[in-house]
Amino acid sequence: MLGFGLLSIVVAGLLILVQRDLKRLLAYSSIEHLGIAAIGIGLGGPLGLYGALLHTFNHSMAKSLLFFGAGNVRHNCGTVRMDRLGGLARVLPQTTGILAIGGLAIVGLPPFSLFISEFAILSEAFSQSRYLVSALFLVTLSIVFGGFLHHFLGMICGEPKHVGGTARLLPSEWIVGGIAVACLLLLGIHIPHLFNSMLQQAVAVAR
Questions:
Q1: Contacts with 146 (C-beta within 8 Å, 6 or more apart), sequence order
Q2: Are 102 and 179 in contact (CB under 8 A)?
Q3: How far are the Cα atoms of 35, 155, 157, 158, 178 from residue 68, in angstroms, in the given order?
Q4: What does residue 182 show for φ and ψ, rounded to 5 degrees?
Q5: How many CB atoms lie within 10 A of CB 179?
Q6: Quick check: 29 and 105 in contact, CB under 8 A?
Q7: Is the entire prediction scored with pTM above 0.90?
Q8: Could you tell me which of 12, 78, 98, 200 has the fewest CB atoms within 10 Å of its CB?
Q9: Per-residue pLDDT tens over the stretch 98-140
Q10: Nearest Cα to Cα of residue 41 among 28, 52, 30
Q11: 10: which strand partners?
């Protein structure tokens, strides 16, 4: 399981760098995060298993938010080819906000919850003196961060490549996106007692 996780994050991290399609970028990101969870399970231990379970939930929230934003981009621009997108901050400011928040969350920056789950898994690796695992983990996270930063800045900044009216999100879309953002922030600041107890019980069963 540990070898599978390491292979997944390294391969997916490198493929993220060369993607041209936004949805495919997000798909490879999912493979990377599956690998992160697999590393936590492979390491075992209370922190590794806890981090893997928490990371699975955190990733589902962040990736749902990003795919929601990508779908909105396709609906309004007719494409998710990143080389054909530009200036989204001017054309789709609200959708850009969703992509920006989702992007910051998915690369594991604080105060978002993926930082907590990734930190737990990394702490377990250090506690077991798995320094090679820790090094590959950190290097891959840096590569993925650079890849997302490059791709997202190219889409958000610059001159718009699709001229049209500014598309606003519907109230229902605000609710869906708001729930995901609230979960990502809440679990990054404080994990509620009930949710924490559920995770602890799941860890006890897994061990």
A1: 17
A2: no
A3: 23, 16, 20, 23, 12
A4: -60, -40
A5: 13
A6: no
A7: yes
A8: 78
A9: 999 999 999 999 999 999 999 999 999 999 999 999 999 999 9
A10: 52
A11: none
